[in-house]
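Researcher: We're reviewing a set of sequences before deciding which ones to prioritize for further study. For each one, I'd like a predicted 3D structure that I can look through quickly. This is DUF4440 domain-containing protein. If possible, include the structure in token form so it fits the rest of the review sheet.
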Amino acid sequence: MKKILSLLILLSAATLVNAQTKHELAVAAAVETLNKGILNPDKALLEGIASDALSYGHSGGKVQNKAEFVEDLLHGTFDFLSVSTSNQKITVSGKNAIVRHTFVAKATNAGTPVDLNIGNLLVWRKESGKWKLVARQAFKIPGT
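Model: Here's the predicted structure for DUF4440 domain-containing protein, in token form for your review sheet.
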């Protein structure tokens, strides 16, 4: 019985160490909402998730403000077919959060197939009770 109790305590402790806080979970949900908006662009969703101060940097060097980011997803030549993230790490500090992950997508650019495997750094800020994207910088992952 003592062995079972000890095992349960150990498993509970391990779970707590790996558990995300409620703020980290909320930021992760905001990232998922952003990805859904990238995959299926919706003006209200994109404008709602982005801060008015948005600086959205692409891996090729192009930087967009909020209006340009929304317009490009709605009417640009890039069409995302699938989007996923991996290796995500979220750090929350007060009303700010930093997210790093690998962004993997299949898309077309003016009809030409494109496979993306890039790194992303996202900065989120809690504005009026909601996590809003303030900055995003994509970068090429060395060796890919």
